Amino acid sequence: MIANLETLICSWPGCHRPAAECQSHHIDAWSRGGETSWENLTPLCPTHNGMNDDDPDNENHGRIVRGNGGYPGHQRRKGDPIRYSGNDLLTSGWRGLTYDYYATRHSPPQP
């Protein structure tokens, strides 16, 4: 559930399906040892969850990976640029709000 609060929509570029209608997708596939943790989960609609290549060496449709700022995006093949959803909701979830808070209004806490 917490993963759905990160991006608020399906993480596949061009899809605008609300996260509430999505499945929790393991970025590093559970079947390949990926953890069930918020860092490894992102919402994908049933169609895009089924299209995602869980095996990074099998490059039929590409896969969801984490890129800039930790945001999930689609990478067609290893080394290709990561494409992100153009929907503003991608950055309206908790990750975007936290980034905006520290980047524009406050300095991050010092260790």
TrEMBL record:
Family matches, as InterPro entries: HNH (IPR002711), HNH_nuc (IPR003615)
Record's keyword terms, sorted: Endonuclease, Hydrolase, Nuclease
Domain HNH nuclease: 2-50
GO MF terms held by the record: endonuclease activity; nucleic acid binding; zinc ion binding
SMART domains recorded: HNHc
Region (Disordered): 44-85
Protein name: HNH endonuclease
Annotated source species: Corynebacterium hindlerae
